[in-house]
Design goal:
Layout lengths: L1 E5 L3 H8 L6 E3 L2 H7 L3 H11 L4 E4 L5 H12 L5 E6 L2 H12 L3 E7 L2 H9 L4 E4 L1 H6 L4 H15 L4 E4 L5 H10 L3 E4 L1 H6 L4 H17 L5
Parallel strand pairs: 1-2, 1-8, 2-3, 3-4, 4-5, 5-6, 6-7, 7-8
Helix pairs in contact: 1-3, 4-5, 6-8, 8-9
Bound molecules: erythose-4-phosphate.
The site of erythose-4-phosphate has 11 residues, from helix 7.
Length: 217
């Protein structure tokens, strides 16, 4: 399973990239706003911090304007992945861009039939938003399960990128279903490594080690 971080905070991205566990980055207009930085500048900087795909979202809503914005974004670096909304214009732009060899992440997916269309349009990634789905009383993980089944039925190569992740259990469930990628806020990714029994066990081992009076290096 690939782990992407969902942020435009370069300090967080650099810190997580240093663990060797980070496979890519996703951003969106709200995260760019939160960063307080110019969009193109921050995306270019992020692309230099990770080798994997960095999703950068267009804000145009019609086909021609989406392509114009995509041209600017994909010129930033080889690892840019153009993020397009799941609309008919977005799907049309997806088909065009992927046929030219550009990676595309189709975002704001809330149904399995939308995901089916994205796969037909040749999307590199489909981003179903599990947290926002849960928020309105639907089962976000059932959506992932349905998309996995449909993609496997037809051998679609579009990767399921589980988005709008709110806690480690979303990641656990996504991994059990066999989603290809999760994108999560930095705090959720860091939380995956933590367990109170690990902390307590380490504390006890170190206390006993100190009593030996030894050093290793
Ligand atoms: C995905 O690419 C989106 O940026 C993101 O996961 C949205 O998450 P949110 O619902 O927490 O805003």
């Amino acid at each position: 399973m690939k782990f992407f971080v969902d942020t435009a905070d370069v300090a967080d991205i650099a810190d997580l990239a240093a663990t060797g566990l980070l496979d890519g980055v996703t951003t969106n207009p709200s995260l760019i706003h939160k960063s307080g930085r110019p969009f193109l500048e921050v995306v270019k900087e992020i692309c230099g911090l990770v080798e994997g795909p960095v999703s950068a979202e267009v804000v145009a809503t019609d086909y021609e304007s989406m392509l114009r914005e995509a041209d600017v974004v994909r010129a930033l670096a080889d690892n840019v992945c153009v993020k397009l909304p799941l609309t008919l214009d977005g799907l049309k732009a997806c088909r065009k861009l992927t046929s030219e060899g550009t990676q595309v992440n189709v975002t704001l997916c809330f149904s399995a039939t939308q995901a089916l269309l994205a796969a037909k349009a040749g999307a590199t990634f489909i981003s179903p938003f599990v947290g926002r789905h849960d928020d309105v009383g639907f089962d976000g993980m059932q959506l992932i399960d349905d998309i996995r089944l449909i993609y496997d039925n037809y051998d679609y190569e579009t990767q399921i990128l589980v988005a709008s992740v709110r806690h480690p259990v979303h990641i656990l469930e996504a991994a059990k279903i066999g989603a290809d990628v999760v994108t999560a806020p930095p705090a959720v990714l860091r939380a995956l490594a933590r367990h109170p029994l690990t902390d307590r066990g380490l504390e006890l081992f170190l206390a006993d080690w100190a009593k030996t009076g030894q050093t290793i290096a």
